């Protein structure tokens, strides 16, 4: 009797699975249209989630002091890459840091023909891994996403990158950490 009941339940379960599977045949999964590139496919940055902690891009986009950085990330088409799981450590120059560059530099970098150069500079500001300031050591060298290295130093209790940019604030994000810096890091300098 137990075997008959077991076979009957197994048969019902199998029938239900086949029926559900047949009902879904011929239907395509739906893809959100927001943030698409015209092909019906969208990247990680288009995921709508107002409950979870914001990723590094959304944190920067919410800061009035990082509008130049956000514009550069968009122009370099790095929004989706930086919206992924990470973890990332982003050294984020403020608008005032970009203002210290020679006149016309930012405008020139934002031109479509300079996208590769802009990507190189922005990727020089990103380390793969989540590195808090208390874990940074004087003389520590970090290999950045673009393949270049930055050097950490500690002076008077402050963290300085490449001897030119000081970490002025740290903001956690869902996919890493953002260190706000007062200078733009230039590869090769």
Features:
alpha+beta, FAS1 domain, 7-stranded mixed sheet, 7 strands, signal, FAS1_dom_sf, Adhesion/Biosynth-related, FAS1_domain, FAS1 domain-containing protein
Given helix and strand content, the structural type is alpha+beta
- Cα radius of gyration in angstroms: 24 Å
Strand content: 15-25%
The CATH architecture of the domain at 53-181 = Roll
CATH topology of the domain at 53-181: FAS1 domain
The whole-number mean of residue pLDDT values reads: 78
Number of helices: 7
Total DSSP E strands: 7
**How do the helices and strands follow one another from N- to C-terminus?**
HHHHEHHHEEEEEE
Anisotropy-based shape? globular
Strand order of the largest sheet: 2-1-7-6-5-4-3
Helix content: 25-40%
Q: Low-confidence spans: pLDDT under 50, at least 5 residues? A: 1-47
CATH class bucket of the domain at 53-181: Mainly Beta
Give the end-to-end Cα distance, rounded to a whole number of Å. 82 Å
Instruction: Provide the CATH superfamily of the domain at 53-181.
Output: FAS1 domain
| Biggest beta sheet summary | 7 strands, mixed
